[in-house]
Amino acid sequence: MMGGGIQTSLPQLAGTTVQVTAVDMGAMMGAAGPMRLAPDRSAVSSGTVSLVLNNAGFRTHELLVLPLPDGQQVGSRAVGGDGKVDESGSLGEASRGGGAGSGDGIIAGAAGWTTLQLTAGRYELVCNLPGHYAGGMYAELTVS
Questions:
Q1: Which residues pair with 48 in a beta bridge?
Q2: Element counts in the chain: helices (H) and strands (E)
Q3: Which pTM value belongs to this model?
Q4: Coil, strand or helix: which one is 56?
Q5: DSSP bridge pairs for 19
Q6: Does residue 117 carry a pLDDT above 50?
Q7: Residues 6+ apart with CB under 8 A from 143
Q8: pLDDT in tens, 47-96
Q9: Which domains, from first to last, does the chain contain?
Q10: Quick check: 124 and 76 in contact, CB under 8 A?
């Protein structure tokens, strides 16, 4: 069972827009369940890219954009004792419900966004709230 519809109005965003949906299951019964980030595309051209996180789950989520080194697979970052991955090198984040940039997280039914200049390469989109990355909340975005 998914959360309700997204209630956030988005402004006109610059560049190519990537819609990323945050999904989590099992929260209604108090159980941990599958979590994932589902972007509407896996590749974009370099330049201005706006990433919109639509929280269709029950838990609060966020979206960080991290460069993905050559040879590294998505989902393989080390998770620390705090349940999070190292955010150093982050290019930006969407963690403010109803707005752009950083905040306290995007609650169920809301959206947030970030607009970045991305060069060619591989990037990992992650939710870095405690336990979420280890729970499967990551996706790859290739920029050419």
A1: 117
A2: 0, 9
A3: 0.89
A4: coil
A5: 52
A6: yes
A7: 43, 44, 45, 46, 49, 118, 119, 120, 121, 122, 123
A8: 999 999 999 999 999 999 999 999 999 999 999 999 999 999 999 999 99
A9: 16-143 (2.60.40.420)
A10: no
